[in-house]
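Researcher: Last one for today. Full complex below.
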Amino acid sequence: MKIVVAVKQVPVRDASIHVSSDCKWLQEQDLSFEINEPDAYALEEALLLKEKHGGEVVVVCAGPERAGQTIREALAKGADRAIHIESDDLVKLDTFGLARMLADAMRSENADLILTGLQSDDLGLGQTGVVLAELLGIPHATIIMEVEKLDGKIRVKRELEDGWFQWVELPLPALLTIQSGISKLRYATLMGIKKAKTKEVRRVDGASAGVAPASVSIERVYLPHRRKETRIIKGSPAEAASQLVDVLKFEVRVI
Amino acid sequence: MNGVLVVLEDRNRLSWEALAAGQELASIAGQPLMAAVIGDPVEATQKKVARVYAVDHTLLKNYTADGFTTALEQLVLAVQPCYVVFPHTYQVRDFAPRLAARLGQTLIADIVGMRAEGTRPIFVRQLLQGKLNADYRHSGDGPCFVSTQAGTFRPETVAAGECDVEVFRPQLEATQVRAVPGERFRTSENTVDLSSAPLIVSVGRGIKEKENIGIVEEFAKALGAELAASRPICDNGWLPMERQVGSSGQSVAPKVYIAVGISGAIQHLVGMKGSKSVVAINKDENAPIFEVADYGIVGDLFEVVPALTAAVLKAKGNSK
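Model: Here's the assembly. Have a good evening.
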């Protein structure tokens, strides 16, 4: 089974964030980046399926030079090769434009299965995978917890709201968006890191993709207004704790 | 093109919030408000909207992304609305991006507000799990697709009324529906009912290791509170799934909700927004949990929580 995994590089989770001077995005120069967490689970699922059924895992990532680090980490974990779509201004694209770029880069791979995370930690639109499936003309299912390969098709467990689930069968090729936390992520081994250096990374120029102007764009990025006045309790841990207990006892009255 | 078309989801209260958003949008754009329902339109016909489309086809009885996308594509092409609004449910997340893409558009997903710029709307969404807001604009021809976040638009703003109902029968063939959906099921009945707990101490990623859960457990015990958790804690198996609060777990409304090491991703917040008081303990003063907190301690939970346990025990001892 040939599996393509689309991954994104995003700012690390607890990064301190500053808005860029044009107020259109973030100041990136002081930020650290890592693989988008749900995408890490999509990669893990692809590697598990390959171990079980054989085949190949190809990682696709769009981003500037720094995305190369995320690609190398994926190769070190066991992906066989990668496609790096080089682009410095992904933020200017809307999902439709970005998905077109990804679709163009992976169409010739003729994958049996395409996996990606259910959403990104930065934009959080949760739709790149679904749009990609539409552009490639293949069926999809979202928020997937388990994948079983059958003959020429797959059976997947979808998460629904309020603790409900559903099994769905899809013919291959298909695209799945993977839920975070469904397995234990592996670490790259020393051997894996060594091997990664010899693996193929095909570079595609994102700028030449001929993407149409975005119909949806970010006008301005800013800190949210506080909707609620939060009383911050200061002092040493012991002082703060004792003050909070007073609040619980005398104001909220639960002690 | 004219009008705001709100696509309601059968038996989902978030639909009425989306309809409220549609009403706001209709007033900004000066256009009529319409609704569409796949399935039974009865409730929608009791709202003050210009028209309700009842989308009807045997292949739409069970939800599939292919069936819903194709049916609604035909409806949008027939009605030609300027705006199409959805509630941001798991089902909408599954098909609405595909529908927008089929018409060459991008869904503006999970909006938390809107405002007028003349007769054009600006939509507000959250970035980086709620750390930042962003204003989004739609331009060019073609309908604009948006979905609304749970709990952001007020359903009671939509007045009751009567309206026209038009049955819309899309052209659908069985071969167009590629997925075969199974029955919906629950893996286990919840044995822990957090929804009626008056006091909840909830733990998140900040706890770092399974071994550390004990300090939060002791605090909950001292306080006489139920122990709960955010999703990553239950995914890791550090606490059972039935203690999870959030969109995929339980919804709670205690007198006091104490969030320990929880950053406050929206998926968690929708499950605890109903709490009367919220206390947040987090090392990051910019964590979104402070957006909904009444009281906060910015600090290291590994120092603060044991101090709280001691202070609670002392307070309880003194009151005897």
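Chain A touches chain B through 77 residues (CB under 8 Å). The radius of gyration of chain A is 21 Å.
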